[in-house]
Automatic annotation (TrEMBL):
InterPro entries: CobW-likC_sf, CobW-like_C, CobW/HypB/UreG_nucleotide-bd, P-loop_NTPase, Zinc-reg_GTPase_activator. The keyword Nucleotide-binding applies. It catalyses: GTP + H2O = GDP + phosphate + H(+). SUPFAM superfamilies: Hypothetical protein YjiA, C-terminal domain, P-loop containing nucleoside triphosphate hydrolases. It comes from Clostridium drakei. The keyword Cytoplasm does not apply. GO terms for molecular function: hydrolase activity; nucleotide binding. Residues 5-176 form the CobW/HypB/UreG nucleotide-binding domain. This is GTP-binding protein. Keywords: Chaperone, Hydrolase, Nucleotide-binding.
Amino acid sequence: MIINVNIISGFLGAGKTTFLKKIIPNIKGKIALIENEFGDIGIDGDLINDKLPIKEIYAGCICCSLVKNFKDSIEELALKYKPEHIFIEPSGVGNLSDIVKVCKKISENSDLPIRVNHLITIIDVSAFDDYLENFGGFYLDQIQNANVIFLSHIDSVDDLKVEEVISKIKLNNEKACIIKDDWYSYEGKEIIEILDTIKNIEVDLKEKSLSIPASKVFSTVSIANPKSFTEEEIDRILNSLKGKDYGYVLRAKGILELDTKKFIYFDFTPHHFHWDYVEGFKETKLAIIGSELKRQKILQCFKNKHTSKALSRYPKF
């Protein structure tokens, strides 16, 4: 039995976890999932169906510093659960080409019947120019090596901007199938129907002139058991993250408890942010990724001095 590997890539906050939550309930056959977080605390795995076999790999990228963990996770899932599909959600700062190379090596060097099926990249249209200018190498790798590209947050820009972004994508990847529609409004089964019409591809990776590990570019601060907040405080903090008081925050997300004892999930990028009430959570935690992060300022904002545990990593040269 062939194990189809589908990789859902996209830069920080593009919508990878939302995409997975839509399609996973509509996939036929046994499924396993690998979640990779650049931060030191796993969060996205908690948001996915907890009945699935999930391997969470955090504190780095599976394309570089955590390659062995990644190989071991694929092999364990394949041998223990014998899934028909393995979905991989890499870190938003991971190189898609390197992840595919690892998958190919596993297939070539083991008896596991692994086949790379779809290389899906989700692109936040509203952040496209900003991320292309500031993080070109990481960003372009995810675009150039995809065979399917979904656009997200198209409702925050006009049609002219969407077409401009599509033209720039085609300059970097003329072979990929680009889905222009707003997939947020689609049912999961409709997205599956779209993917089923797209043929599997022979992986043809684009060579990179220089590969810089994410650990040399991005920093992260993670906090377990942060303090509780009021709704007004949450709104104020998310707005303040757009400035430079905390450094250049590219992504912040987590589960927090309000002073009302209710729990919320918050999600921040410089271009959009929100929070929603959630149920079924007892553990609070958050992760922040960016560059030149101001650790003490972040800890002062979120850390409970009696119960919190904080972890951080900064670029190593």
